[in-house]
Amino acid sequence: MMLQGSARPYVCLRCLHASRHASLPRQPSFRAQYQALTATVNAHRAYKTERKPFRYNSGKNGSRYESKKSQAWREASDIRERLRDWEAKNHDTARTLLEDQPFSEKLGNFLTRSQTARTYAEDTSLKTPTADLFDGDILTDLRAQTSALQPGDLVETRFGGNSIPILGVCLGRHRGNQWFFMNTGEVLAYNSLPTLFTVINYVDPAEFQDIVRILPEQPPTRPRNVLAHTHTPEALEESALLQEKLVKFYADAVSIGQNALFYLDRASVVVAHDTEPSYLSLEELADRVLPDFMKRGGKLPPHTLYALHLALQRDGWGARPVNLRWHRRNYIYEIQPKSDIELFSSVLGKVRKLVDGAAMRDDPGKSTSLLRQNDLGRFIVKARAAIQASRTRRAYTTHGMIGPATEPVAKFPDWNGDDLKFIRFIELWACRRVSPEASRVDSLASTILRLTKMYEGSSWVAHWTGFTFLQEIGWIPPWDVAARYDYRFPGATVGRGQPIVRQKVDIEASMRDDIAAGARMDWGDVKVFCVDSAQTADVDDGFSIERTDKEGEYWLHIHIADPASRIKPNSPFAEYMEAVPASLYLAGFPEKMMPEKVEKQFSLNPGFPTLTFSARINERGEVLDHSIKPGTIHNVVHMTQEEVSSVLPGASPSESNPLFAVGTEPPSPGPVKVITTADQLTAQDKDDLVLMHRLSKALRDRRVEKGQVSVAQDRKPALTVSMDSVKSHKDVSDASASISWSGDPYIKLSQKTMTEADRLVETMMHTAGEVAATWCQARDIAVPYSTQPDASHNADALQALRQEALEPLAADGKPIPAVIIEQLYTLIGTSELSSRAAPFYSVGLDAYAKASSPLRRYTDLIVHWQIHAALARERETGTSLVGTDCSEADFLPWTRSVLDPKLPVLQARQRQIREVDNRDGASQWLFQALLRAWKFGEAPLPKTFDFEVLSVPHYGVRGKLLNFFGITAIIPLSQLSERTKLSGREPGEVLQVRISDVNVVTMVVEVTPLLEEKVVEAEGETVEDVVVA
């Protein structure tokens, strides 16, 4: 029996009775409580309950009915017979009730299922098409989340939109799977478990070896819990101990959270900037928010950090994790500025007020008197007029993008200050997604759109509808790429229809005299080959060859642009580049890491400085010696990959079909530099290129023996986007005006294969990274080394996979199946930046530090700065630093203790750039092209698509379109008959489908299968069983 109370929504009658007679102890001060909580291992609040049967009105006088009378009454009752008789007369087939589980992944059901955890074997996001559709370093950057975990690590995860935290202990990778013991008492396998919080080495792996011994070869199903299928007394005992540790950890965190509420609930407010977002790690937030007396030994205990983490998760607007996919352990949080928080509160209050008034009218959206009562209503009227004007030129679609047009919109309304606040609110919701999915912002923002009465035909009025709304009112371009709003950099914002907008920096004040002046080697007439696109202006690498006195041995010289010699480390310009630590190459919105004028000072050309990484090798690909020297090059030859490939042995493939394009093709752009063709090379030049190609192949063969892999080289589409046909009809930089665009981008996709020139350049750049890492390792200099710690732990499994699967397929010239590639990536694990050298399996090197792109990548600049400082020291002292521990040397720009905390932030920023540029952003261009072809007929499409099944999650059948660049698609449950057999679908099956829906923002393609009817005999009657063809 439940009673409604005033303080709590529902209170158990028994608890209410007990609470009225309970005495409340006096609460000590928070400082005393905290010290007591953390003084000993067992110092946490323990709760004991006695489970006794409860009878209402029980007591000394006994129950209302005596036991004999109750027994007699039950024996005389005929209720069972009456129920059986009713059941016989009212027999009906049992029907499955409609579940409140969403039929697709478009939106979650946060109203009635906010506390329900998913336990699928595969929690795959549909937002990402296939793994890295476009050129990107997938071997080093896009790993499974769990690959960075080690046995004994404590993790927190949440399934889908669930608000309940699930704690677990990583049991390690065994038999090809990553296993976890969860605080639900289950032992589960996950290949990609998103981890929101991690405590390293929380449990000694020796404490769960009995659980490890019972792990099966293949993860069980129905249920997935290993302990439900097999267990031993020892395994159950260890499980109980692990669960006790997890319960204690959570209880300690909750206790801290309750007692430190004053500090935790104000966390985002305390650190928020007035007008600019801030980006802080959990540890940085804790240092700023929590008092020093909470520290133990100068550090906050893990459960205290977790209490802050839980508090930030409850903060709907103030603090949001930047993006889970960009991190491997703990979050980096985006702290919203106070101005945006105030804006949210203000707009939400006005929406509620308008909704309250709307409740008194039958059709509030058409009530002009209602809408003109306040500034929000007046904005809705203006927005409606803007949308109507837009639709005279561009068709509205429900697919997250409006249609193409050749003429601009004649007139948009003028927006006042109040209007701009509402537009900013919609932008924060629809573009920047700063509110959590389950936030009330979703419903109230969509209410604004519904009141315009312009989206009544839409099944969903969600954030992608808000993105379309901003396009229709002329606030963002009709072809804008939603993914680019995922850029999160300090001091930078995404511009309207233009690249990111950044604050200016004094470059001249950050320059210095050449640190290598007087020590540069003059390369004279040595011919340096720079191989790149004819349109590439930032040329930062070239290579040459030198024959030695010993036959069969050669010096390979990789000449790298040398901006580090002139730019001061730790200068304002260096900090400017650190904030956006790589050039942005998202098609249509490029942004260089260095300003163009600085880039031109150092891009490789005759008479320009270089830092040259040299390796002495033999014909077997063995590196015999190495050196690094600053120098000046004079004889520079710029060539394209196609021209170099025509000189080298082997096929020189060109763009191959299928070719897919929408829009008006622009004229071919001219080269930005003088390009040398193969015909212009001398015989000696061609011999040098062929020799370097042969030596690079020997180097690759040697690295393959150590694990180098190149399995993704033939599946990356080349994306070209041209804005030549696009015109804006207002100043794009005008912050308060709508802009009308005419014309649409030209989007072209074509499948390309890796050329011999590409392989040559790749090997040379890897060689430069090997030389840089080996040179720094010999001096114990801290630089951003690329490492793959999991590959070392999984060496035996990797070797078996190579011998049993990869090498036989490669020998037969067959493509590597996606499932084997996924197994390979899972075993290799994530790539991590470290200040200590370690093997890098993907390129088959014992040590590797990227050093070939200082004009485009900030971590490469760090490597150059450290090397220049060490070279200067060696010149100054006249002695080599080989064998010297320089990790904390004061002559280096960064010591190891200073560099270590920088690397996780740099890595997170670099990952977000790759996610946007190579993955989500590039894929959204593809989806735009697909929509324009499918909806507006701008390009031919296949009548049916070949759909390869990848998995069968709860929302339908997930697969990829084999004859359209392999993009991910789903067959939702709504497109299937009620009697469709999902359980019979196996990965690898190929079905024939047609497109039924495309969402450009969420990157989801829904398809409809072509059905066949299969007649199945069942108990003497004929049943038509619909199966997916």
From TrEMBL:
Coiled coil: none annotated. One of its GO terms (biological process) is mRNA catabolic process. One of its GO terms (molecular function) is RNA binding. GO terms for cellular component: P-body. InterPro entries: NA-bd_OB-fold (IPR012340), OB_CYT4_C (IPR057912), RNase_II/R (IPR001900), RNR_Ribonuclease (IPR050180), SH3_CYT4 (IPR056625), WH_CYT4 (IPR056624). Pfam families: OB_cyt-4, RNB, SH3_CYT4, WHD_CYT4. Residues 520-873 form the RNB domain. This is Mitochondrial protein cyt-4.
